[in-house]
């Protein structure tokens, strides 16, 4: 790849530094504070013995996974009002929490959560681009940790998680495809993509759009290759944390 001076001096195909702190929410079955560079998100998983009303009404067996996402008031440079003060939830937050839920359900056998809902809560402490991708990646870690502990406690018979799932951003910035955009890059990118994949490399969701621009098949292929590389690194990182949480 051609040399490109990124704001934080990363290579075009390099992830931001990853960081984590386990059990940040002691009342959750699984939780961590996950950092993608300066973006930091608290992700937690809690099992509730209850299923949505529509599942009961339709007589659907099994359980459910759902997510809530929010950006805390101090997560951005200018204070962000809480949804409750506006009287309605922010449309972007709704979109992202639905994406988190879809991503986790794609890798889960819901029949192994009989009568339960697994709640995934993602709260952004600091936003510097990639909050949805960090949330999905962290939500899986929190869910896997929770599942392992719930099995040990006898609340679940076996893991409903069929494989891992993670997400990463990629984009075209200053004419070049790059991986894992920070805020400055995301703001100025001509193409922006958020890609959700399993640890085996299968796609769960692919969101890509031109920002007052178009993009070619070659550029799309380059973004896909970058994302595949990033997801593999994230999958290894997830496994390391989940293993640590078992000890």
Task: Using brief descriptors, characterize the structure shown.
alpha+beta, Ribosomal Protein S5, domain 2, 6 helices, 247 residues, five-stranded mixed β-sheet
In short:
This protein is of the alpha+beta class. The chain contains 6 helices and 9 strands; from the N terminus they run E-E-E-H-E-H-H-E-H-E-E-H-E-E-H. Strands 1-2-3-5-4 form a 5-stranded mixed sheet.
Please identify which CATH superfamily we are dealing with.
GHMP Kinase, N-terminal domain
Q: Domains counted in the coordinates: how many? A: 1
CATH fold-level topology:
Ribosomal Protein S5, domain 2
* pLDDT < 50 stretches: none
Shape: globular
Overall description:
The chain has 247 residues and is of the alpha+beta class. It is built from six helices and nine strands, in the order βββαβααβαββαββα. The protein has helices at residues 53-58, 83-86, 91-105, 131-152, 183-188, 217-246; strands spanning 18-22, 30-36, 39-48, 64-71, 117-126, 165-173, 176-179, 191-198, 203-210. The strands form two sheets. Strands 1-2-3-5-4 form a five-stranded mixed beta sheet. The model has no long low-confidence stretch (mean pLDDT 94).
Describe the SSE topology.
Blueprint: E1 18-22, E2 30-36, E3 39-48, H1 53-58, E4 64-71, H2 83-86, H3 91-105, E5 117-126, H4 131-152, E6 165-173, E7 176-179, H5 183-188, E8 191-198, E9 203-210, H6 217-246
Parallel strand pairs: 4-5
Antiparallel strand pairs: 1-2, 2-3, 3-5, 6-7, 6-8, 8-9
